[in-house]
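Researcher: We're teaching a course module on how sequence relates to structure. For the next exercise, students receive a sequence and then see the predicted structure as tokens, so they can try to spot secondary structure elements on their own. Here is the exercise chain.
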Amino acid sequence: MDLSARFAQVASSDITHINALDVGRRYHVTYARRQETRYGLAILLTLRIDPPTNNIKVYLPARFTDVFLDADIDQINNGTRTYHLVYHGLYPKSRSFHLTLEN
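Model: And here is the predicted structure for the students to work with:
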């Protein structure tokens, strides 16, 4: 992919903060990638929302970066494994995001 295409992809993306997701809703993960940010490596997930033509992107918290193996990312991207991200709100004491990744 050339620079213009990569630039257009980033410029048109709709990155959403995790706490903007609906609590308890299952978001189908359609694409995953490691991306360098100013804070270091992060996992960027593309989530399908209704209607199915719409997608949003979310960065996972840093603690999840090492959880995703390259093989896991490949399986998500080529469609051999299907996952759903579920946001359950915040943990009361730590105020960190409570997330699950379900089949």
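Model: If you want an answer key for the exercise: The chain has one domain: 15-102. The first strand starts at residue 26 and ends at 37.
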